[in-house]
Specification:
The complex is a heterodimer of chains A (709) and B (152).
Chain A lengths: L15 H13 L3 H15 L4 E7 L5 E8 L3 H4 L4 E2 L6 H6 L5 E3 L15 E6 L9 E6 L7 H25 L1 H15 L4 E5 L4 E4 L1 H7 L7 H22 L5 E9 L6 E13 L3 E10 L1 H37 L4 E5 L4 E4 L1 H7 L7 H23 L5 E9 L6 E12 L5 E10 L1 H78 L8 H31 L7 E4 L1 H11 L1 H7 L2 E7 L5 E4 H17 L5 E9 L4 E8 L33 H11 L3 E7 L3 E9 L6
Parallel strand pairs in A: 18-20
Antiparallel strand pairs in A: 1-2, 1-6, 2-3, 4-5, 5-6, 7-8, 7-11, 9-10, 10-11, 12-13, 12-16, 14-15, 15-16, 17-19, 20-21, 21-23, 22-23
Helix pairs in contact in A: 1-2, 2-5, 5-6, 12-13, 13-17, 14-16, 16-17
Chain B lengths: L11 E5 L3 H13 L3 E5 L2 H11 L3 E5 L7 H9 L9 E5 L6 H8 L3 E4 L4 H18 L18
Parallel strand pairs in B: 1-2, 1-3, 3-4, 4-5
Helix pairs in contact in B: 1-5, 2-3, 3-4
Classes of the chains: A alpha+beta (709), B alpha/beta (152).
């Protein structure tokens, strides 16, 4: 029997999964035969054995029973019997061998339940120091036994030892009770341990063994996990050992030796006292891993819930801020009409927190009543989405009337039933005030318009009055002119006779007259002539004012006109002893105007000059102003002149500067006035420049071609 | 046309004027100046006298009773018997329209009252002279009066 290194052991490298499955099976099995059969099956499946058999000695019996076999013919096992007392038998001898025994050839008289000539015999036992309680016989492996088979032998040995030991207990009466108890604690799915106060294991059920006892052949991880679990358990017990109550409860985190994951247990431990063995500790571990996980999940959900709540609270807070920031009161009422939410402005109207002034409270109540009646209107009109109305409220603190426009909207649930009414109030005070001002403005405007119309009507009336007055005045003026024209005619007829007869008398038609008579007749004649001149001048002015002065335009030369005027006034010029000259400066074109009127003007100007010039000269000059297209005729004298202050007056009616009756100069005093009027009619002007004592210059300016009137 | 004019020593002037003082004054002065003078007091009489006497010249006041001077002038100028006789219109009205009306009616000259007798005589002489020269073919239709000889 030598240990040889196995050349490529067939069982080598069997995956640990298969081993674990096998070990798990053993842990749950309480039957030796079942365990043995499973072991044989495992060997056949994972190691290339041709034959295998298991023999055990049950209980106190010395007979070795064949409990499992494979690959053995029925003839080989038929009536096979072996007693442990037959110590010469190589198989029995192998029971006490510390190592597996390899039997190459068995002497023929020894029966073995195997057909192979060479085979290994592995004693089944828990510890190498113990005598074997069974044998595992394996054939077909060759002289070297492989490690897998060795592992199986050890594992099966422990199982057989455990099971046979129990069977041994069960066979006694006490043992039977103990077995029952053992079965009960094994049936409990929670790990149960009985330890001394130091934590040293005395009894453990299979579930506890799984955690705390790693089989020898267990993987390194398993072993380490089991060791760790033992340490943790001892620590847990020792920390609670001092002053420990009857029942201690605590959490204990262990490692699942097979999966390596954390397992959370609730450790219940209590002390028990036994006369024989002293104090020991019973511990029950309850797996609360799932519970803890569930708790964690609950906590997670709770945290999520808290976050969600916080968010909702934030949202609500934000909403409150927004609603409060709206200046208009906002209220939310439920379907009963009770206010469920309102912003600060609304609160001021419908809720007076901390105010116990009776008047204020009354107003708040009145506001509430008004709002309620509005909302109840909205509620009865459930069909409409929006409702608009006006409510008469009052300022709670002052009692000032507060007309508001209320806009209500309804919020419906998903089922379409009315949930809330949201009412927004808008202060109408300003709007009403504006409307009032606008109305005032409109009235003012209407009044203004009426006044304007009245003024316009009055103006029109006055215009009409003026127009009538104007017509009347024109008629009166025309009548006056007509009257004057008629008058002058009527004056002339007798004057004509007076002048005629005087003339005849002076001409001796009726015989010679004496010198005194002639003198008197001359006076009659000159006065009559003066009267005639007055009448003629009045007639001229009348005609001009009545616009009935006829104009006869014709072309004529200024030089010829001058000659005519000189000829007409020749007697006077002669008498005056003045130097009278005429001059045409430059080329003076012929003028188209009313010849007779122009002549009358020039005649008048010259006659005036002669009249008011005691000594010196009178010059008549004509020239053409090409730029203004007008002919200018200046009559210049060296006479008495006219003071500046009087230079305007001379053109007025009946003006002679010396207005005394005994004036030294003849004339009607209408001459210059008529001249100026005539000049205007012809489109011209007459100007005067004069220095008193030095002389005067009258200048007539006429357009070269008179405009048609 | 001279055949219709009676041959007389002095030219005959018919003075038509309703205002007696003026009429007699002009008549006196014209006689004094060497004309023969006949008188009429209104338009109708003026036409009768003109047709009857066929004067050398008619001095016609325009404002006349029964028939005014314009109408009388028009009729005389439309009459073959009298149309050749020059007519001097005489008016006291100096308002526009009178002179034109007179010319349209057929007056040969226009004198505005007041008119001194010598001025009137000068105008009559001028017109007669003009008339005589115009129709001067041997006959002495317009003779210049030399002395005053009243004829009624």
């Amino acid at each position: 029997m030598s240990r040889l290194a196995a050349p490529l052991a067939p069982g080598h490298g069997v995956e640990s999964d298969a081993k674990l499955a096998f070990v798990e099976f053993l842990l749950t099995s309480v039957d030796v035969q079942e365990s043995a059969r499973r072991a044989v099956d495992w060997l056949v499946a994972h190691v290339a054995v041709s034959e295998a058999a298991v023999l055990v000695a049950e209980g106190m019996s010395p007979e070795m029973q064949l409990v499992a076999e494979h690959g053995v013919s029925s003839g080989a096992i038929m009536d096979f019997a072996l007693s442990r007392e037959d110590t010469s038998h190589p198989l029995i001898a192998a029971l006490d061998s510390p190592e597996p025994v390899y039997i190459k050839t068995l002497p023929a008289h020894y029966r073995v339940p195997l057909e192979a000539a060479a085979f290994h015999v592995i004693p089944l036992r828990a510890y190498a120091s113990e005598p074997g309680q069974g044998l595992l016989i394996v054939g077909g492996l060759g002289p070297e036994i492989d490690s897998e088979t060795m592992w199986l032998g050890r594992t099966l040995g422990k199982q057989v030892s455990r099971l046979l030991g129990r069977q041994l207990l069960a066979e006694t009466r006490f043992g039977q009770e103990r077995m029952l108890l053992y079965s009960i604690i094994n049936a409990v799915t929670d790990p149960i341990l009985l330890t001394d106060t130091e934590g040293k294991l005395i009894i453990a059920n299979t579930h506890a063994e799984k955690l705390f006892a790693a089989p020898e052949e267990a993987s390194e991880g398993w072993r380490r996990a089991a060791a760790l679990n033992n340490m943790l358990f001892s620590a847990a017990l020792s920390t609670s050992a001092v002053g420990m109550a009857e029942l201690a409860r605590r959490e204990l985190l262990l490692v699942d030796p097979l999966e390596g994951s954390d397992l959370l247990f609730e450790l219940l431990s209590s002390r028990a006292k036994d006369e024989r063995q002293g104090t020991y500790v019973v511990s029950i571990l309850r797996n609360v891993t799932d519970l803890a996980r569930a708790k964690e999940e609950i906590e997670e959900s709770y945290r999520t819930l808290r976050i969600a709540q916080a968010e909702v609270r934030d949202e609500r807070h934000r909403l409150d801020l927004i609603i409060d920031s709206v200046a208009d009161p906002i209220l939310v009422t439920d379907q009963e009409g009770d206010i469920v939410l309102m912003n600060t402005p609304a609160e001021r109207l419908f809720n007076a927190p901390g105010v116990d002034d009776e008047a204020t409270l009354r107003r708040v109540r009145a506001n509430g009543a008004n709002l309620t009646s509005f909302v109840s209107n909205v509620l009865t009109r459930s069909g409409e989405q929006r409702y608009r109305g006006e409510i008469q409220l009052g300022d709670p603190s002052t009692g000032r009337p507060l007309p508001v426009e209320a806009v209500a909207g309804t919020i419906l649930s998903e089922q379409g039933e009315l949930m809330w009414v949201v009412t927004i109030l808008h202060d109408l005070t300003e709007a009403l005030e504006k409307a009032r001002l606008y109305e005032q403005l409109k009235q003012g405007s209407v009044q203004l318009e009426r006044k304007v119309q009245e003024a316009t009507a009055e103006l029109a009336e006055q215009n009409e009055l003026l127009r009538r007055q104007h017509i009347e005045l024109e008629q009166a003026s025309a009548l006056k002119s007509q009257f004057l024209a008629n008058m002058s005619h009527e004056f002339r007829t007798p004057l004509n006779a007076i002048l005629g007869y005087t003339h005849m008398l002076l001409n001796n038609v009726t015989g010679p007259v004496t010198e005194p008579q002639r003198k008197s007749l001359s006076r009659i004649d000159s006065n009559s002539r003066h009267l005639l001149a007055l009448i003629n001048d009045i007639l001229d002015i009348t005609r001009i004012e009545a616009g009935r002065m006829p104009l006869n335009a014709s072309a004529f030369g200024i030089g010829e006109l001058f000659d005519e005027v000189l000829a007409e006034l020749e007697p006077i010029i002669k008498r005056s002893n003045l130097s009278v000259t005429t001059r045409l400066r430059g080329n003076v074109p012929s003028v188209r105007s009313d010849r007779q009127k122009v002549k009358q003007i020039v005649l008048n100007l010259l006659s005036n000059a002669l009249k008011f010039t005691p000594a010196g000269s009178v010059t008549m000059t004509a020239w053409f102003d090409a730029r203004a297209k007008q002919v200018e005729i200046a009559v210049k004298d060296t006479g008495v002149g006219i003071p500046v202050d009087d230079q305007v007056k001379v053109f007025e009616d009946f003006r002679q500067l010396d207005s005394s009756p005994a004036r030294g100069y003849g004339g009607t005093g209408l001459g210059l006035s008529i001249c100026r009027r005539l000049a205007n009619i012809l489109g011209g002007t007459i100007d005067l420049a004069s220095v008193p004592g030095r002389g005067s210059t009258f200048t007539l300016r006429l357009p070269a071609k008179a405009r048609r009137r | 046309m001279t055949g219709a004019t009676k041959v007389r020593e002095q030219p005959l002037v018919l003075v038509v004027e309703d205002y007696q003082d003026a009429r007699e004054m002009y008549a006196a002065y014209l006689q004094f100046s060497g004309f023969e003078v006949a008188e009429a007091g209104n338009g109708v009489e003026a036409i009768e006298k003109t047709r009857e006497l066929l004067p050398d010249i008619v001095l016609m006041d325009l404002a006349l009773p029964r028939m005014d001077g314009w109408e009388a002038t028009r009729r005389l100028k439309n009459d073959e018997l009298t149309k050749h006789i020059p007519i001097v219109a005489l008016t006291g009205h100096a308002l526009a329209g009178h002179a034109e009306g007179a010319r349209e009616a057929g007056c040969d000259a226009f004198v505005t009252k007041p008119c001194l007798p010598d001025a009137l005589v000068a105008e009559i002489k001028r017109l007669l002279d003009q008339h005589r020269r115009k129709s001067d073919n041997g006959t002495d239709a317009g003779r210049v009066p030399k002395s005053s000889k009243k004829r009624t």
